[in-house]
Prior knowledge:
The chain has 219 residues and is of the alpha+beta class.
Amino acid sequence: VADDYGVTSLSGRLALRRDGLDPDRIDVESPFLSPAPEFAISMRKVNPRQAEGKSFQDLTEHPWAGLAVDIVVEGTDQAGQSGSSDVVQLVLPERPFSKPLAQALVEQRRNIFFQPDNQRDVVRALTAILVWPKGVVDKSGVYLGIRHAAAKLYRARTHAESREVADILWEIALAIESGNLHDSLKKLQAIKKQLEKALAEGASDEKVADLMKQLREAM
């Protein structure tokens, strides 16, 4: 980025490429495909006239993960003027799952997003996993979590309630795949962003030292 007045903020904006969606697999009118992911980009200096760097954003939990998108980076300067980058086309990365049960739950989570009017099919799929859990479900907590999700989805009458079930399935899949590692990674990324912000805003040495300590402990 570069600007004579100094860049005050940077953000990313995404748009779903609906022309490439498979109508047999994805309901293009699904309400879960409407909210676009957005993110702010931290800069190392306050209002730089020129800056270059990289920013990591984890969007793998968003319903668009795995779908084709257009992405643009937008910047605003101190005079209130804005500018944007060229449009980049890409497939929004998905989080890889290697364990079969986690993969199955994530697939049903996608079905909630992609076919919101076919929730009964998801209920049946989750119930099928529970019919004979031996050799499939290793922990009672996971079994009860899936059972709770299936019952909650069966009773769901709104898209908000269905979204709650999708969130439950995501957390169960993460727990199956990596245990507590996911929570630790989220904490590490949050502290890293706090540290970047503190450095950019010229925070006190004590504040920076405390965040550095937290960062080392999280790592």
